[in-house]
Design goal:
single chain, Outer membrane efflux proteins (OEP), alpha+beta
């Protein structure tokens, strides 16, 4: 009879299925094979050179680490389901066979019991689970935001690396011409070997700088490919970076609304809400724990009985005071963490704005120096053709010009990275999220 009762219940149980891990992972060999479907169905054009903003969108869609992080949402949703489910009832039965004596029948006993204490805290536990699911979702958005920022920064860096290599190649070509001309002049006896040696030394320095730039380009390319789930051997076409400047009034507004838009701060607010619900659940759990049972059966004289019974825990010593103290301390810690994170975010935004302003001033001065170096180089070429200056002076001016160009290219990259960093800190482009304000119950204070 017991098996007849249990068998239908087992039909609805979940079965176990093994899911072995793959030991190898295939990377994309080409940008064309990446996932490029945006929310809403719009497709990214992968045939044209990719801007930093487009590269950021592709990284959010394809980054392997982000795909792993999004699996946390499923865990959080499962925890909501677990918190919403009441405990299963308990069924007990017994049979006593009649072996002898004045009795006339075997004894039968049975009971059905249900834990009612769990139902008291189910509302608070469900609220905590929902808040933690929202916290997980907000943290994943923040991780996506950071991956997008990293992809933009690497795109701008890779563009800078390629510009730097092109500038160095141009200067190397000019110096190589100067070296060849100097060798001809030495062979003709017009100049001495030491007069032509400086151009060769400058050319060797530029060769070394070009090698370093190529190594940096390979490193940035590999890092960007890793964000996209691409093989390092895949080609990536980069468009010229165009990072918008934020107007001062826009920056001020973003700073004022930072706590309602930055996903990491919103996640902390949801975490605080979950801690509040945990504290309320711990307080509710200090009240007497109640269990209801229905017992029935018949004894050996065939006297049958049935009736309820209650089990009550008396809150005399424990009263769940330890868990309440832990939950209160956790809530205080989360409040302090949120305050510290908000202060750090606001100070970081101000510092990023100041650093960007300093870089833009440096770029204006560097641009003026480049104009002067370019003008000096133009005059030097005419003077060199007219034999008014020697190869040593011409090599110095070529070297000065390429240094000014590299300086300006590096500053452009730093400004682009600073603008991206400031937009990331300010969560520019993200909407305000009305994460609920948390009110502390009087009993929880």
């Amino acid at each position: 009879m017991l098996m007849l009762v249990i068998a239908p219940l087992l039909v609805g149980c979940v079965a176990y299925h093994a899911q072995p891990l793959r030991l190898t992972v295939k990377l994309h060999r080409s940008v064309a094979t990446l996932d490029h479907t945006l929310p809403g169905g719009r497709m990214i054009n992968l045939s044209a050179p990719l801007s930093p903003q487009t590269m950021a969108a592709l990284a959010v869609l394809n980054d392997p680490a982000l795909r792993a992080a999004r699996a946390q949402i499923g865990v959080a949703q499962a925890q909501i389901l677990a918190a919403a489910l009441p405990p299963d009832p308990s069924l007990q039965g017994g049979f006593g066979a009649l072996l002898g004596g004045p009795a006339v029948a075997p004894s039968i006993a049975g009971s059905f019991s249900q834990d009612l204490a769990n139902l008291v805290t189910i509302g608070a536990r469900l609220e905590a689970a929902r808040a933690r699911a929202d916290e997980v979702a907000a943290n994943i958005v923040w991780q996506e935001w950071q991956v997008a920022s990293q992809a933009e920064t690497l795109s701008a860096a890779l563009w800078t690396d390629r510009r730097k290599i092109a500038a160095l190649d141009q200067a190397r070509a000019a110096l190589r011409t100067l070296v060849n001309t100097g060798a001809q002049q030495v062979a003709a006896g017009n100049i001495t070997i030491d007069q032509a040696a400086l151009a060769r030394a400058s050319l060797a320095n530029l060769d070394a700088a070009r090698d370093l730039a190529a190594q940096q380009a390979e490193a940035d390319h590999a890092a960007l490919a890793g964000l996209l789930g691409l093989s390092p051997a895949a080609r990536i076409k980069i468009a010229r970076p165009a990072i918008d400047q934020l107007a001062p009034q826009v920056t001020d507004h973003l700073l004022m609304t930072l706590s309602t838009r930055r996903p990491d701060l919103i996640a902390l607010r949801y975490g605080y809400r979950a801690a509040n619900a945990d504290l309320r659940s711990a307080i509710l759990a200090q009240f007497p724990l109640l269990s209801l049972s229905v017992n029935g059966g018949s004894d050996t004289s065939q006297v049958a009985t049935v009736g309820p019974s209650l089990s009550l825990n008396l809150p005399l010593f424990n009263r769940n005071r330890g868990n309440i103290a832990v939950m209160r301390a956790t809530r205080r810690q989360l409040r302090a963490s949120y305050t510290a994170a908000l202060a750090s975010a606001e100070s970081g935004a101000v510092a990023a704005q100041q650093a960007l302003a300093a870089l833009e001033q440096q770029r204006r001065r560097a641009a003026a120096r480049l104009v002067q170096a370019d003008q000096a180089m133009r005059m030097a070429r005419r003077a060199y053709r007219a034999h008014l200056i020697d190869g040593r002076a011409a090599a110095d001016l070529i070297d000065q010009l390429v240094q000014r160009r590299i300086e300006l290219i590096d500053l452009d990259q730093k400004i682009a990275a600073a603008r991206i960093a400031r937009a990331t800190i300010l969560a520019a482009g993200l909407p305000s999220v009305g994460a609920p304000n948390v009110h502390v119950d009087g009993a929880a204070r």
